[in-house]
Design brief:
This is LacI family DNA-binding transcriptional regulator. This protein has about 350 residues and is an alpha/beta fold. It folds into 3 domains: about 5-75, 434 Repressor (Amino-terminal Domain) (Orthogonal Bundle), CATH 1.10.260; about 75-185 and about 320-345, Rossmann fold (3-Layer(aba) Sandwich); about 185-315, Rossmann fold (3-Layer(aba) Sandwich). It is built from 13 helices and 12 strands. It has helices spanning about 5-10, 25-30, 35-45, 50-65, 70-80, 90-105, 120-135, 150-165, 185-200, 215-230, 250-260, 275-285, 320-330, and strands spanning about 80-85, 110-115, 140, 170, 180-185, 205-210, 240-245, 265-270, 295, 315, 340-345, 345-350. The strands form 3 sheets. Strands 2-1-3-4-5-11 form a 6-stranded parallel β-sheet, sandwiched between helices. A 4-stranded parallel β-sheet has the order 7-6-8-9. Strands 10-12 form a two-stranded antiparallel sheet. The longest helix is centred in the N-terminal third of the chain and has 16 residues, at about 90-105.
């Protein structure tokens, strides 16, 4: 300690009394700046005028200020953290997109915090709030929007102050009310293209295994498929549309329900590949051969479906690329207008679909 500093400390704290610890506020006061400016000058994360930086560093040296290393690490990390909130990272669809995010983040030396909501809307709002408190650099919402105005208002209430403070948000899939950067898979168009491809194989009797109707992904895929059939003069009766969970077990149960209703389609379309995997097992349990007795198609082209026997016909989406696009949007230069990156799907015909036969009866 210098003689000058010792004299200053003796004046402030007579010998025999223990001086209080030197805090960031103490340094800021001595330098004549705000605590925020002092913090920025000391941790170097934001530009500070050299004159102010010099005053802060001089005050810190004079007072013997020792920064809280843990707090500095948190502050630094928060500016290099990207939060990813998805429905369920164990689902191969979300896992593939998250893989793209993490690969792109690693190239930028960013840390990814990954959370699964398990389709719990309250949990999603809570995770956004936590990431705001952690001062994450960006928040990515990966998964379908929900047709629920109360949820939309709650999400907007969390995201608006975050973006006003400089946080960045990007979403994958359609969120009606959020004016943020979006990676938008063309679900409606992809499902319509799949329907036309199946019609070209001679199919006219269809069953559809779909998910929760409030999810925008479900609405778009079902609408696109139904509209393409209608354009060809093919009806899709309501009793041949069965709702289930967006899971393997959901697809299994929905396929069994479709058969229990007496439906005998020549082709079953599951609106996600994961549901189609469950449907394949259910059809086999009922003694039906795919595609000899009934054809089967999905949507997404998760890696697993190429290894099935038979391999699954689907609509392929570049899932990892979608993750890379999402983080690129979130980290782009700020703009007054949000951007939408549309991602088309590609129909991939594989062995699970054949030419139409007399049905699965």
């Amino acid at each position: 300690m210098s003689e000058r500093e010792r004299t200053r400390q003796d004046r402030l704290h007579p010998r025999g009394s223990a001086p209080p610890p030197v805090t960031l506020h103490t340094v800021a006061h001595a330098a004549g700046v705000s605590p925020a400016t002092a913090s920025r000058a000391l941790n170097g994360t934001t530009r500070v005028r050299e004159e102010l930086r010099g005053r802060v560093l001089a005050a810190a040296a004079e007072l013997g200020y020792i920064p809280n290393a843990h707090a500095q690490a948190l502050a630094s990390a928060s500016n290099n953290t990207v939060g990813v909130i998805c429905h369920d990272v164990s689902d191969p669809y979300f896992a593939a997109i998250a893989s793209g995010v993490m690969r792109a983040a690693a190239e930028r030396d960013l840390l990814v915090m990954l959370a699964s909501t398990f389709r719990d809307q309250a949990r999603e709002i809570a995770y956004v709030s936590m990431l705001r408190a952690q001062r994450a650099r960006a928040i990515l919402l990966i998964g379908s929007g929900i047709e629920d105005r109360a949820w939309e208002r709650a999400l907007e209430a969390e995201l608006a102050p975050y973006t006003r403070a400089g946080g960045r948000v990007a979403v994958v899939s359609r969120h009606r009310s959020l004016r943020v950067d979006t990676v938008l898979p063309e679900n409606r168009e992809g499902a319509a293209a799949l329907a036309r491809a199946l019609l070209a194989l001679g199919h006219r009797e269809f069953g559809v295994l779909t998910g929760p109707p409030e999810l925008t992904t479900v609405a778009d895929r079902l609408t696109g498929f139904r509209e393409a059939l209608a354009a060809a003069g093919v009806a899709l009766p309501e009793e041949r549309v069965v709702r289930g969970a967006f899971t393997r077990d959901g697809g299994h149960a929905a396929a069994l329900e479709l058969l229990a209703r007496g439906a005998r389609p020549t082709c079953v379309f599951a609106v996600t590949d994961v549901m189609a995997v469950g449907a394949l097992a259910a059809l086999r349990e009922r003694g039906l051969r795919v595609p000899d007795d009934v054809s089967l198609a999905g949507f997404d082209d998760i890696p697993l479906v190429r290894e099935l026997t038979p391999a699954l016909t689907t609509v392929g989406l570049p899932l990892r690329r979608m993750g890379e696009l999402a983080i690129a949007l979130a980290l782009r230069e700020r703009s007054a207008r949000s951007r939408v990156e549309r991602v088309p799907g590609e129909v991939v015909l594989r062995a699970s679909t054949g030419r139409a036969n007399s049905g699965c009866g």
